[in-house]
Every structure is written in C-alpha cells, then in structure tokens.
Amino acid sequence: MNVDLFDFDLPAERIALRPASPRDSARMLVLADGATRDASVADLPAMLRAGDLLVFNDTRVIPAQLEGMRGEAKIGATLHKREGPRRWRAFIRNSRRLREGDTIDFGAGVTATASDRAEDGSFALDFAGDEPVELLLERCGRMPLPPYIASKRPTDARDADDYQTMFADRPGAVAAPTAALHFTPGLLAALDAAGIGHATLTLHVGAGTFLPVKAEDTDAHRMHAEWGRIDAATADRLNAVRASGGRVIAVGTTSLRLIESASGEDDLIRPFEGDTSIFITPGYRFKGVDGLITNFHLPRSTLFMLVSALMGLERMKAAYAYAIENEYRFYSYGDASLLLP
Predict the structure, then answer these.
(1) Which of 117, 174, 178, 264 is at a distance of 20 to 30 A from 80, taking alpha carbons?
(2) CB within 8 Å of 170: residues ≥ 6 apart
C-alpha cells in the first residue's frame, strides 16, 4: 500500500509532554459496535465483559540514552537491542566521527568499543568490565524519551517513574509499552472485581519503533526486530479464554505484535521465544487478538498502519480526526483508545 494513505496532519499542541495524573484519569476514545464515544481509562471495567483478559507487556525500560566522547568528538548513543551479555546494538549520533574499533568514554567509568557497523548506520557496542551492563547504564545513562518529547524538553527526574509501567519487571526495553502507563493498582483491582483478568508477556521494545517509514510502499519497508517471550502457561491461558467465549485484548501494540507472532493459522497461540519483526498492515488476518488498548500514533508510522489493519483505514482516519478536533492528547504520554472490531 502507498504510505501516503496513512498520513494526517497533527497540530504540535496535541503532543503530550507529560502523562495524565492520576494515570487512569487519561481520556479514552472507544471504537466499538460501529460507534465512537468518549470515555476515560477509569471507565474501562464498564467497557469490557466478564471473562475478557487484558494482556500487558512486563518489559522494563533501561536508561539507554548515552552521551560520551571518542577523543575530542562528542558521540551520542541510543541502545536499541541486546546482542549478547555485554553487547548492545545502538543508533549513533555524530556517527561520521566513529569507526569500528574506536572506544567511547561515557563517563562514570563506563566505556564501550564500537564494532560491526550495519547498513542502517548503527554500531554494536561492547561494554568493558565485569559489572552487569544494567548497572553501568544506571550510572551513565538516562531515560530514552521519544524524540517528539525530548526535542521539546529535557529528560528529568519525573520521567524515571512516569516512563515506567506498573508491570515493569524485566529490564531490556528502550521505549515504554505506553498503553500500560494508564493503569494503576486501583484500576486493576476494579477490573478484577468485574471479572476481567490479566496476564503478562515480555517484548523488549526497541528504538526502531520510532523510525519513520521511508519507503513509498509498505511492501518495501523493512521492519525492525525485537525480542519477546510468551511462556506455555500464558499461551494456554489465552487460548482457554477465547475457547470459553472471552476476548483477548492486548494492552499496547507490543503485546499485540507478540501475540500475533505466536499465533498459527489455526488461531491458536503457542509459546514463543525469540525475535519478531512482524509488520501488520491492512489486509492482515488477526489470529490471536480480539481487541486493543493503545495510545494515538504518529502519521505514516507502522503503528498507525497496525491499528488501521485492526479497525479499517477510513475508520481510523475518521477517529483520529475526531480526536484531534476534540483535543485528545497524542503519543507516548497521551490519551488512550479502546479498539474493539
């Protein structure tokens, strides 16, 4: 499909720079039963049915934004995918000043050697020493806010909490699964009381999620890979929910992409562990997911293509136009949508 089909104009003032407080007070646009209506995230227990199951991503964001020196040259690095115990693939700013074999000093006693430059301009960074890399990053890194926020304000102490979900448990993401940022212990208790369960999986979100689609046609776009895992018990539980008439509703596009990666043509979800580069566009047949809670996405992005595949392109363009007109807040710290095809 032509990528231009997924374009729309978003006023800059619609981009949220801070999350709603409390988190579940965020607005939520509901698309269900052919209708569009306004609600809040706190209304979610009344919007779903007993027997439904929400699936959250339990990845934890690491402080993956680094600033260092290679000699006299300033080098910026954004880690985006682990490739080994001490090796991370990183997008590099000022990459023309970096060569394979160069060492970058990130301060606080943290250094890494660059190697294996890829076609996309990224390098592999091998961190020196014996300490776990996660400890090194706590010393020298900062929270990797999305570029559309970081370009408007500096990262600060609030982001260390704001950009982490209540489910964050397994370190490895360099971007938050932002739909789950809206959830609080109180909301989860209300959902449980309404007979709506929840489960978790792990997908370590990479910085590639923010890369623009540069191709003119979706068939020419190369999707980034991310590591994920669904264990056997979780897969069995998701299948049992659907078999009993309940709906599996992904909280976030990361959860959806992993469930669909683990689903077969027989519509059964199987255990999964490894990389996925699934790219979902209109025409895709969903096999493991019955609905989605997600934030509002960038124009021409793979995520807007995904929600258009779930709900239909024209319906999503109309919904986004409605959201813009009615001052919904967009992107990572913005409001939510509940999509029930």
Answers:
(1) 264
(2) 58, 59, 60, 202, 204
Answer for the pair 248, 238: CB distance below 8 angstroms, yes or no.
yes
pLDDT tens column, 11-46? 999 999 999 999 999 999 999 999 999 999 999 999
Rounded Cα distance, 264 and 307, in Å = 20
Neighbours of 96 (CB within 10 A): 8
Q: Please name the residue ranges forming H helices in the chain.
A: 44-47, 133-140, 147-150, 159-162, 185-193, 232-243, 253-261, 302-311, 313-325
Residue 325: the pLDDT is 98
**What does the alpha-carbon distance between residue 290 and residue 267 come to, in Å, rounded to a whole number?**
11
Identify the pLDDT of residue 262.
98
Residue 77: what residue type?
A
* Each residue's pLDDT tens digit, 295-326: 999 999 999 999 999 999 999 999 999 999 99
* Helix, strand counts (H, E) of the chain: 9, 17
- For the record, the structure tokens of 259 come out as 């469930």
* CA distance readout (Å), 293 to 108, 140, 204: 40, 34, 18
* pTM of the complete model: 0.94
